[in-house]
UniProtKB/TrEMBL annotation:
Keyword Hydrolase: yes
KW Hydrolase (keyword) present: yes
Protein name listed in UniProt: beta-N-acetylhexosaminidase
Lineage, highest ranks first: Bacteria, Bacillati, Actinomycetota, Actinomycetes, Propionibacteriales
Domain Beta-hexosaminidase bacterial type N-terminal: 2-127
Length: 484
């Protein structure tokens, strides 16, 4: 199982077998959507009717208990008489059902009827996460991914108890979210992508559907509008945002660090006020990410003046600021979350420490560990390698509590695995870079420190292979793993 639960015990003489007359019981109606979704999947693969009913069932889902395990915690028991999943919240129940899916045979994930038996070895589990932030980032700017593609990505990452989806919605190559007050951002700024092909963007209706779909998987969307660099798409759409009022051409290559908003113009902040307002209106989550990375074309003194002004606009619209670690060089509003993307670079570590000294918390995305777009090895046909080659072991074998020196464990909110898409233009390529590394980052975010061990993780990861085969996931069959 991945992530490894906090506590699990075998019930050696017990086996649960799902029979054709099985039922799914819900203790109260709040569990109905979770039960319906779970039942729908099991009906497809087992061919059983699996009615969802009030009260107890063969499998009972309850939100009345396990209070001590927190909002995402749950208890699960499978024995010869049935299965119960109990949590204090629907979120915890969802995480518990995610575990139940992994306890069932891999073919339970199939979309056509399969042969049983549908057995679970008797077990009791008591589980809760180490960290509250367990994220994945998808760069939809370098290459655009449609609503349906992002939904499929959500389906897959939610299997590993990921609870944040950071969407990198703007960059030099494309602006991907509708902003009514600045319509050329999408009409023009979203029209292309890396390589010069047709880009795209999410209308407000589509974006709302995406946020809702993520919420149904207990995933909160963290939207990112990258500033003041990585802004060519916006600069190309509106000349007034440029120093000198001259709009550049749209950009479809993959250099970084050449674009910057005009820091000393009022219109820049009027623009950000509108953009952050409209994005915040579509964001039920607390965080709005303002980027702040690689502003190599913004003079540093101007950068230091810009960040607090941009941050204030995020706060004005009711959101907490999130940003890449460079933003910690200036003063940050209370409640800021700083995303560390350094390697072992002391300059990046100093910025992370500076963030924590100001009271910010950290989400850890070390590029040489957690970046899903780094090549696995020299010959990997996709991806980049500026942060090094990132094998499955390299991505798993680190400790979030000690990654950045001189930072207290209490300052770590969690981990995130970013997937940049300069070289990735379809979902198969996204899957190839995401699997099998994402489950390891998800485990670093969920499982207790004492459970983290590469040797046993390798074996558990091997067991995921048959699931991905059933699900049609184009995963990289790394020779580090003895795939089944
Ligand atoms: C980054 O990789 N530029 C955050």
């Amino acid at each position: 199982m991945i992530p490894q639960p906090t506590a699990q015990q075998a019930l050696p003489d017990e086996t649960f077998t799902l029979q054709p007359d099985a039922t799914i019981g819900i203790a109260d109606s709040s569990a109905q959507p979770i039960a319906d979704r779970f039942a729908a999947q099991l009906r497809r693969s087992t061919g059983f009717e699996l009615p969802v009913q009030e009260g107890t069932g063969t499998i009972t889902l309850s939100t009345d208990g396990a209070e001590s395990l927190g909002a995402e915690g749950y208890e699960l028991r499978a024995d010869a008489s049935g299965v119960t999943v109990t949590a204090a919240t629907t979120e915890g129940l969802f995480r518990g059902v995610t575990t139940l899916r992994q306890l069932l045979p891999a073919k339970a994930e199939a979309n056509s009827e399969q042969e049983g038996p549908w057995e679970i070895a008797g077990t009791t589990i008591s589980d809760f996460p180490r960290y509250g932030y367990r994220g994945v980032m998808l760069d939809v700017s370098r290459h655009f991914f449609t609503l349906d593609q992002v939904k499929h990505f959500i389906d897959l990452v939610s299997l590993y108890k990921i609870n944040r989806l950071h969407l990198h919605l703007s960059d030099d190559q494309g602006w991907r979210i509708q902003v009514d007050s600045w319509p050329r951002l999408t009409e023009y700024g979203g029209s292309l992508q890396v390589g010069g092909g047709t880009g795209g963007y999410y209308t407000k209706t589509e974006y709302a559907e995406l946020v809702q779909y993520a919420a149904e998987h207990y995933i909160t969307v963290v939207p990112e509008i990258d500033t003041p660099g990585h802004t060519n798409a916006a600069l190309a759409s509106y000349p007034e945002l440029n120093k000198g009022d001259q709009a550049p051409e749209l950009y479809t290559e993959t250099e970084v660090g050449f674009s910057s908003f005009a820091i000393d113009k009022d219109v820049t902040y009027e623009f950000l006020d509108d953009v952050f307002r409209e994005v915040a209106e579509q964001t039920p989550g607390e965080l709005l990410h303002l980027g702040g990375d690689e502003a190599h074309s913004t003079p540093h003194s101007e950068y230091l003046a810009f960040v607090p002004q941009a941050a204030e606009l995020v706060v004005k619209h009711g959101k907490r600021v999130m940003g890449w670690h460079e933003i910690a060089d200036g003063s940050l509003p209370a409640g800021t979350v700083v995303q560390y993307w350094g390697t072992e670079d002391p300059k990046a570590q100093v910025l992370a420490q500076k963030a924590v000294e100001q009271g910010a918390t950290l989400v850890l995305s070390p590029a040489n560990r957690a970046y899903l777009d780094m090549k696995y090895h020299e010959e990997t046909p996709l991806g980049l390698q500026w942060a090094g080659l990132v094998s499955v072991e390299q991505s798993y074998s680190w400790n979030p509590a000690t990654l950045v020196p001189n930072v207290p464990a209490s300052a770590i909110d969690g981990v995130e695995a970013p997937l940049w898409t300069e070289t990735l233009d379809d979902l198969e390529k996204v899957e190839f870079m995401t699997f099998p590394r994402l489950p390891g980052i998800a485990e670093l975010g969920w499982s207790q420190e004492s459970a983290l061990d590469w040797t046993t993780y390798r074996d558990r990861l091997a067991e995921q292979g048959p699931r991905w085969e059933v699900l049609g996931v184009n995963f990289y069959r790394s020779p580090e793993i003895d795939w089944r």
